[in-house]
């Protein structure tokens, strides 16, 4: 089976981010789904401004190039105030511009997120799907992946302590693989 290279964005810059733990788990489990996951960092991106469209900042250009070089992107989002954290929205705005140079157009994507709340980022993910839809990124619709981050579910290193969560994450990654294969075959 083809191994796809997937860039992932972590929508939290917290040093204690539970979504970063989730990202580490996904990196470890990805080979079981014939995926290689590589982070595309967003913490150093300047705030997007149309003033810079004529001369894109180097960090933004590097970020856009990394998305374009990936077969697909995975967005790992916290939920902040029932929406997408600003740092992640800024990254998506940066990816989308200058007008006509949307790095996410046609790029397969998948969303997942973890929250201490029981609905596991469901509302933030709906907002994220709306943004990705506008950006013409074909999204994995099912299975949805709302992770309720109970204490101890993930170790700091990204080991999952619960078998059913491990099984779910591997099955979700396999669905991401199928989604990428289908999306890329549709455009070739
Ligand atoms: C500004 C802010 C807003 C939050 N809003 C929500 C929310 O709407 N829903 C939710 O389930 N948790 C919410 N939380 C709690 C987060 O789930 C929790 O802080 C989580 O650790 C954030 O993910 P991170 O550690 O990867 O940054 C919020 C936290 C912060 C700091």
Can you walk me through this structure?
- The protein is of the alpha/beta class and 188 residues long.
- The chain has one domain: Rossmann fold (3-Layer(aba) Sandwich), CATH 3.40.50.
- It has helices at 18-29, 58-69, 86-96, 122-134, 163-187; strands at residues 4-10, 35-39, 72-76, 109-115, 146-148.
- A 5-stranded parallel β-sheet has the order 2-1-3-4-5, sandwiched between helices.
- The radius of gyration is 16 Å and the shape is globular.
- The structure holds flavin mononucleotide.
- Residues 12, 14, 17-19, 78-82, 115-117 line the site of flavin mononucleotide.
- Residues 6-148 form the NADPH-dependent FMN reductase-like domain.
- Keywords: Oxidoreductase.
- It comes from Microbacterium oxydans.
- InterPro entries: Flavoprotein-like_sf, FMN_Rdtase-like_dom, NAD(P)H-dep_reductase.
- One of its GO terms (cellular component) is cytosol.
Give the overall average pLDDT.
96
Approximate shape: globular
CATH topology: Rossmann fold
What about the largest sheet?
5 strands, parallel
- How many DSSP-defined strands? 5
Structural class: alpha/beta
Total helices: the number is 5
Which strand-content bin applies to the residues?
A: 5-15%
Number of domains: 1
CATH architecture assignment: 3-Layer(aba) Sandwich
What hetero molecules are bound to the protein chains? flavin mononucleotide
